[in-house]
Amino acid sequence: MTIIEPFRIKAVEPIRFTTREQREKALLDAGYNVFGLSAKDVIIDLLTDSGTGAMSAAQWGALMQGDESYAGSRSFERFESVVRSLTGYKHIIPTHQGRAAERILFHSALQPGDLVLNNIHFDTTRANIEYEGAEARDLVIPEARIPALIHPFKGNMHIAALEAVLRAEGDRVSMVMVTVTNNSGGGQPVSLENIRAIREICNRYDKRFFIDACRFAENSWFVKQREAGQEGRTPREIAREMFSLADGCIMSAKKDGLANIGGFLALNDDALAQKCRNLLILTEGFPTYGGLAGYDLEAIAQGLEEVLDEDYLRYRVRTVEYLAEKLVDAGIPIVQPPGGHAVYIDAAATLPHIKPLEFPGIALVNALYLEGGIRACEIGSVMFGLGADGKERPASLELVRLAIPRRLYTQSHIDYVGDIAVKVKGDAESIGGMRITYAPNVLRHFTARFEPVGVGVGRG
Ligand code: F0G
Fold first, then answer.
1. Which amino acid residue places its CA nearest to atom 11 of ligand 1?
2. Residue 383 maps to a domain
3. DSSP assignments along 405-430, one per residue
4. pTM value > 0.90
5. Domain residues for 180?
6. 389 φ/ψ sector (left φ>0, alpha ψ -120 to 50, else beta)
7. Which atom of ligand 1 has the smallest separation from the CA of 252?
8. Which of 306, 322, 355 delimits the end of a domain?
9. pLDDT, tens digit, 9 for 90 and up, residues 184-213
10. What angle do CA 64, 74, 301 make, to 5 degrees?
11. End-of-domain residue from the set 306, 325, 354
């Protein structure tokens, strides 16, 4: 039975079609980095699911209710009450997006030389930890590193490894985190059982435990579908238990907040919360708006309610799975099983003739754009290949992420993406590698420039 979009469309935005020649020129001007493209030159934008979703009529309506008082606004009270009833945390601190919550938490809680453990740190999370002179170490289960391997909770933390690090280097460990779903490992869920085990170990070693909760609702849906004993619970009940097991969370409301901007930091520790609020005032704003407008707080509060709707979550996860099935049918290797917000193509296996440091991910991203105006994102050696020591080494996986914005595209858009990917796969042997011509030292994937190596993209 077809699972249909559980909404009707009230407002539309035109898509501008481009020719291959126009896209060739646009890509050349952007230094072969799709972050440098003008969005009007993109037909289907799968660069990210962050802040790119469609808001509901109820969210747009809520915007008009925004109270823009500098302090103590009604919109903050609504936001605080929604976030508190969802997470159960005592202190709710709004921020302009997820990375602001990261920076404020890490600057308040970390010392140089500290160690933070996570399943896999997202790039901004890692960068914010390293910026404090601390180390970010990934301890995901080994199965997560094998793209084709199917595992229901491939985002899980490797519990034995966590315990081993705490035993050997416990003094340095300032915080344990878990990212739900695990974006950098393929949008894979973390089981409740795993989160309970992390809590138990953190209790034993007296460590803080935080959740990177950007995609908490998608994670809750996977728990409901896949974890024994959870099928009878609502996504909200599952999310509540998950939050109750940690000491706090950081959140980008641009994902499962169903908003275009916003985030928060929520935690129980009074002294740490006070430190965070003081820093918030210095750089984001007063604690009752934290860099957001009152109307943004309204949109997020409404979005956090809508995102836990079961019809929405069923449709959401099915959309991603549907695209994944199309790719797999065409023989395109992907991270299995598909994640909650994106399909991750295994670029190394799709383009085996391209060496890791000639960036198969970037080559594939460019090919998808040239062929069909689709914008995807490399998650491989450009994003992760430059070590803190300045040395270049291949990332463990060369992935290309097709992230699906929430409620934005219809099934025929997804069909088109599948058609283009199949065409690119058919021409795989003609696609060549890339070399970097410019890159900054941090978060280089955003602004690096490239040129093709040998024949292939841009030379055909
Ligand atoms: N943590 C995770 C797991 C994320 O995926 C992101 C953002 C952040 C933190 C930071 O949040 O963007 O609001 O500052 N991920 C986006 C992405 C950018 O494309 O996956 P932010």
1. 98
2. yes
3. -TTTS-HHHHHHHHHHHHHHHHTGGG
4. yes
5. 57-306
6. alpha
7. 13
8. 306
9. 899 999 999 999 999 999 999 999 999 999
10. 65
11. 306
